[in-house]
Amino acid sequence: MDKINTVLVVFSATSIHSKLAMRALDVAEQNNAKLIILSVRDKNVAEKVAKMVKDQGFLGEKIVEKLKEDIIKDRNEVISKRLDMLGNEAEKRGIVFETIRVKGDFVGNVIEAVNKYGVDVLLLDDIGKKIDEIKENISCDLIRLS
């Protein structure tokens, strides 16, 4: 492996696992590399949950809409807290970092970020078949944790 200048760690929804976060911090710190923290959210999760509840028919329209709003608010708060904790740890270690939050297709957003930021090492949770599609479309090293 050549010099590592940029490390990308990717999280989906609220799955910001400490093992993955610590590994990404360690790789960035050991190589004096920039750390890109990418959080990719499915933009329709709250709508999907609300639709399932509505389809069951035991809650009214206004309650379902309020539930959807609460899910969105709660997810945003949880994600923000976890990303802030990771950023704070990067600052403590003297790691240059950038946090990016996007909504949409996980695989597409990961591939786009790898290419846009010239990533040398990508760290991901083992996400099953999606990993194969990502591996086929990137040229950097991949570290996956399970």
Describe the structure in your own words.
This protein has 146 residues and is α/β, with parallel strands linked by helices. It has a single domain (6-40, 71-145), classed as Rossmann fold. Helices cover 52% and strands 22% of the residues. The chain has helices at 18-30, 45-56, 61-92, 106-116, 129-136; strands at 6-12, 34-41, 97-103, 121-125, 141-145. A five-stranded parallel sheet has the order 3-2-1-4-5, sandwiched between helices. Helix 2 (45-56) runs antiparallel to helix 3 and helix 4 runs parallel beside helix 5 (129-136). The two termini are 22 Å apart. The relative contact order is 0.23.
List the helices and strands and how they pair.
Layout lengths: L5 E7 L5 H13 L3 E8 L3 H12 L4 H32 L4 E7 L2 H11 L4 E5 L3 H8 L4 E5 L1
Parallel strand pairs: 1-2, 1-4, 2-3, 4-5
Number of helices, counting only DSSP H or I runs of 4 residues or more: 5
Structure class: alpha/beta
CATH class categorisation: Alpha Beta
CATH superfamily: HUPs
In spatial order, strands of the major sheet run 3-2-1-4-5
Question: Which residues sit in consecutive blocks of at least 5 with pLDDT less than 50?
Answer: none
Portion of residues in beta strands equals 15-25%
How far the N terminus sits from the C terminus, by CA atoms, comes to: 22 Å
Element-by-element helix/strand order: EHEHHEHEHE
Classify the helix fraction into a percent range. Answer: 40-55%
Mean pLDDT: 84
CATH topology: Rossmann fold
Q: In angstroms, what is the radius of gyration?
A: 17 Å
Largest sheet descriptor: 5 strands, parallel
Pick out its properties:
5-stranded parallel β-sheet, Rossmann fold, globular, 146 residues
